[in-house]
Amino acid sequence: MSEPSIFFEDVNEKQGTFHRRIFLMGGVTALGIFALGGQLALLQIVQGGKYKRLSAANQFNFRVVPPPRGKILDRNGNVIAGNRPSFRVLIIRNEIDDLDDTLDQISYVLPQVQDNRRRIVRDINQSQRFVPTVVAADLTWEEFSRVNLFAAEIPGVQAVMDEIRVYHYGGAFSHVVGYVSKISEKDLEAEGENPDPLLLHPGFRIGKQGVEKAFDKQLRGVAGAQKIEVNASGNIVAEDPDGTRPPTPGEDITLTLDAEVQARALEVFEQDSGSAVLLNIHTGEILCMVSAPSFDPNLFVSGISSKAYKLLNEYERRPLLDKAIGSTFAPGSTFKMASALSFLDYGIDPTEKVVCRGSYRFGNRTFRCHGVHGAVDMRHALKFSCDTYFYHMCNRPGVDRIAATAHKLGLGELFELEIEGQKKGLVPTTEWKRTYFDGTKGRPKDPKWHPGETLSVAIGQGYTTVSALQLAVYVSRIANGGKAVTPHLIKKIGAVDKDFDFKPLGIPPEHIQIVRDGMEMVSNDADGTAFRNSQLNLGDMKMAGKTGTAQVINYDRAGTRKATQWKNKDHGLFVCYAPVDNPRYAMAVIVQHGIAGGRFAAPKAREIMKVALLKDPELQARIVAPPPPEPVEAAETAPPEVESTEVAPESIEYIPPVP
């Protein structure tokens, strides 16, 4: 058997290979240790602050605390729009695992949640995951207490007490003050790229109309923040008072409106449709601006049902429309003061008389007057509202001069009012007709102004349309002697009062006095068109006014002046100011399809005006003062009194007169 062979390798070669492997493995290990050490240094030293904040964020949350919305007050400090406590339940989507299970647990405590489940799921799906969603609102104290017992055991559910908007006068201020409602996507887009986080809060409401919308940013205030400690389930463990920032309440806004006058105005309209505007003729402060019928703005705060909204929107008397500034009507005979002033500006003698026989023939057409007034001058034409007088005179100055005077008095104008929604209306001119009736957009081509059209404009018909606010400004400028008073609604924001100064219109005072004389005769002469319904019965205080009736349909085409359908009846208008001898307030009332201004609009104006006069401290003293003593007429043949003496005077012989 042969012996095994033994082979020896080179020892130095084997050792070299071993050393290279150790060096390579050691290098890799050292590199790994170095990288790990560097990463640890980066995390602990360089980025330590960042991860410390992230860690704290998992432990602490900041929640937006909405500020109390600023109050809206009337001129006397009465709260029109304020806030009241509201108990609600919220769900934060990113803090719950199973939405259905969470809703089932809440439904066990609040059965009404099950009825609104579809709406709740829709709202949660539409909102961002970190934004709370309202599950139930306006809970009673018992419901809120019950849900509080279980809220801590249901992840992502909060029972909170917030404030909700409340309107104390219901529909009296609904159009001018407006309302707040849930914020929409369109509202968010209008806020820009970085909207206020407050807008995402489920309890936040944004102004949608009127003063609430125009001054939303001043009213909403600045949101606060609450720093709270939470556990791994997201439930609140404690609050950190050092990290909590209180909210800044919104500013209060004081209006020029008077709550009692406003409420009385809505009351006198009852079921009628129309509007009323009352101004201080010296300051332009609006004491009353009502549109009827109205609606309750409280319905919109928590969200109005589609059925209720449809009923409001489709009702023919349009309760959602602000008829005081957002609707225009033919002014009818209330326009005649503007026509009269244009006649005077042209140089027509106010004593010149026109004989009214009940109609006026112009060209091949007969224009009717509502009565037979005989020979009337300008003052009596206003008193009797004689159309024939204005038909006869109007083409002397022409439509452009009439329009210029009307615009000067505020008709067909937009004012710098603090809220949106004004409609300009129209006082036509020859230039307007030339550009409007140009044959485009389905309109006939008839650019020439015809003299017969001026007759309609002169009595406030035809193309002429104005708003109730414009009529109130118009009669204010007549009552104050020709100052360009402009209306405003805001008395002060916070503690800052607003101040105004008005320039003269450039209308001669003697011209204004002539139309004021006519207006005084309308309301205070026994045969004036508004005598019966213009008596204030406040001592010696009197009111001056002007009635108006505006056609809605063509009588010739309809075949009668007495329409049976409400929508075809004439509008009734009345403008007035008081007191006559020292004017303070002016107003305009429009009763939509109210048939006649003297019978339907004037009584409403009288009742509203009486409240304003009775509330004025300076005028109160005059109203309650005893009437001045009546002058005593001297006796026809009273002999001189003889002073009594102890000795009787000598007898005086009576000598009869010589026949």
TrEMBL record:
Biased composition (Low complexity): 632-647
Transmembrane segments: 22-43
Classification via InterPro entries: Beta-lactam/transpept (IPR050515), Beta-lactam/transpept-like (IPR012338), PBP_dimer (IPR005311), PBP_dimer_sf (IPR036138), PCN-bd_Tpept (IPR001460), Penicillin-binding_protein_2 (IPR017790)
First-tier enzyme category under EC: hydrolase
Subcellular location: Cell membrane; Membrane
GO molecular function, one term: serine-type D-Ala-D-Ala carboxypeptidase activity
Domain Penicillin-binding protein dimerisation per the UniProt entry, residue ranges: 65-239
Gene3D superfamilies in the cross-refs: DD-peptidase/beta-lactamase superfamily, Penicillin-binding protein 2a (Domain 2)
Keyword Cell wall biogenesis/degradation set for record: yes
EC number: 3.4.16.4
Membrane topology: Single-pass membrane protein
Source superkingdom: Bacteria
Chain intervals for the UniProt region annotation (Disordered): 624-659
PANTHER family membership: PEPTIDOGLYCAN D,D-TRANSPEPTIDASE, PEPTIDOGLYCAN D,D-TRANSPEPTIDASE MRDA
Protein name per the record: Penicillin-binding protein 2
Lineage, uppermost ranks: Bacteria, Pseudomonadati, Pseudomonadota, Alphaproteobacteria, Caulobacterales
